[in-house]
């Protein structure tokens, strides 16, 4: 859905109706009760992101960026094999930032869609599992398939600003989010735990102490890394291990969780941290237990 507008991006599953195959994107206008446009591709569509100016379509090895005004391709970005359909875009009108996997495992490429500037960040040694941008695209959060570390980068220059440790054992991280006030980072994982981490107050300030080696690396075009240690989570919340959750932030230190089992949770943490308190828990629908049911988060 494009914000709170009447426009929706829809992708068919190809099973119940052959008119809506999984390799087409339909932009539906709910006001006119008709399709605004149809975009076709040679392979399956894995994800769609919308901005007021752009339609972003993610395939297994590429990302297409269309202009909403004329439906022409604004950018075609090649990626490493991307089965999760990873891609995120900023939503502030002043900046148009897109992040997606690079051409090699562990890489993230950040593109300024308005200025056509590309920055490649070596975020992890393993494949990227999930990523998230702030609303203005200034910060990028990433996690790898190893699932032990979450890293925060300055998306403009690729500097590693902060690093969080989820745990010592491998885990699949389903979702990561940065709060709009740039104070917190939340991550949900297959270990059945939601972790909330505290961002440094000066997270967007330039590092004050740059040594000679870092200066040389800048001259050579290699991005220096500024790390402040593996910081542990500030607050935690227990979740069902069998369910994948998308995480986001609400007002006043609340975290929102949407599960593929049709559940919604809202929990809160205080200034002391530790275990979070559940404020709300609802179940909106149940998924049928069939062999051909596929759910993508």
UniProtKB/TrEMBL annotation:
UniProt membrane topology term: Peripheral membrane protein
Coiled-coil residue windows: none
Gene3D superfamilies linked: YVTN repeat-like/Quinoprotein amine dehydrogenase (2.130.10.10)
GO cellular component terms, semicolon-separated: phagophore assembly site membrane
Keyword line: Repeat, Signal, WD repeat
Signal peptide region: 1-18
Compartments where located: Preautophagosomal structure membrane
Family, per entry: Belongs to the WD repeat PROPPIN family.
Name assigned to this protein: Autophagy-related protein 18a
Organism: Brassica carinata
